[in-house]
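Example 3.2
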Amino acid sequence: MTNNSLASDFNLRTNWFVNRASAVFPIYFVNKENDLFISFLNYWKIKNNNDKVILVFRIYNSSGQLKARQYYSSLKNNNCFSIRSVIKDLKFQGMVDVEVISTENLRYPFPAITGIFKSKDYFSSVHSAGRIRGVDEPQTQHETLETNWTCKFEKNITPFFHYFNGPRYDKPDLKVALHSPEGRKVREVFLNKKEYRPFESKIFLIDKLFKKNNFKRNMFISVKCQNSDVFRRMVVGNLHKKINHLEVTHSFPWQNKADYCPSTINKVPGAILNLYKNKKLDLKARIFPTNSKGSIRYSVKLQTESNKKLELCLTKAKDNFQKKNFGEIFLKGNNLFKVIYLYGNKVPSRFNTSLVYKVKKKSSFSTDIATGAKSIVYPKKYSHWGSGVVGLGYDTSIMIRNNSHDGKSNKAKGTLYIYTHLKDPIKINISVNEESCKSFFLSTISKKTKDIVSKNKVTIFTWFVKFDQQNLEIIWVSYKKSNGCILGDHSF
């Protein structure tokens, strides 16, 4: 966990010079139906005009033995690498370390890549989270408490976390705790192992660590561990046992440091929590009791399907974080966009929130997109990009919100590029009205996109959009109505 405030972190990034970025994803192959795709846009070239990038994939088994190495020096605009194409062993568990190297400045030590996990025709996704530190980074020992994911204690479903070791022998002494919805520690187990070998990793199943009768709705897990040569964000989530499917997200650290949004003038909120969706989905925002303690006043605006933009909501949303700073907030049916404006001198700068999207039917599948309220110190951006899945019954919705802290955003115009196996990207002009959200479905956004939405196979694609305004944010979701499977993420 950083010792800096969020504002100082952003200031430091402007002077970063990075030649290496990396990310670690777990591999969970228990049959021939499992695969892990590493999906990414060649944004280094498209956005930053940097064509001096190489990628190295190192695949380790769970004992830390290097089993495969792949090297790529020529990248396409749209890239999707199958780990199964390299690892033929039907039952293989371990991890892949994706390393990006360039002679030019990469600017950030995390690569903007996405891991898409597959089991039969079920998919889930998570962007780069944990990584192995470079040799020029501090290797100081410190402790972190990783948490903040939706735990499903259901029949044939169990929460999990993936622990990985760096390039040296280490004795982590993991402490795994089960917490009540209010954050109280209910049970704790100690996973003391004499030593972890370099690059050793393991997926821990929570129902193997705790008795099932201890589980109740909205309980959650934390994992305390030591770190030195790794940046400890873990891939976590829930394992659907019957179909051997990892439904993934990444952890956030428990925030004990007091770090608050700067005081604002003219009644401008210190942070805004944006919740938005399309009419075919339901959304629940889960706020864990793991953020810095704060004192918050709030107001709510809402956009429905019949409204062109956000309107002041006089009836309070079903939430309970006003006093305790945690709870659940729901957005259903024709309610498309809800904004919660956070005021006060103690609004946490890092107000982590999980976005749980579901297809509108009873389903055990959902997303768990790790994001949060946007502090007023966040830098503005014009460009956004991400991935998606279409075909075989899957459609992708690119959901865009355009609003600002002061409520004075302008209509945004932009160009959306869809990158697939085709030689040229599909180019589409789009716009989003001020103080509103809008959803674009890949199956209907253009006649050209219909050609890539096949009934017989899945296409993993990437997309890039650049707007003429800076107050926008994007969430993408891909889902299959027939089985309720859904995946997604926030844009890069």
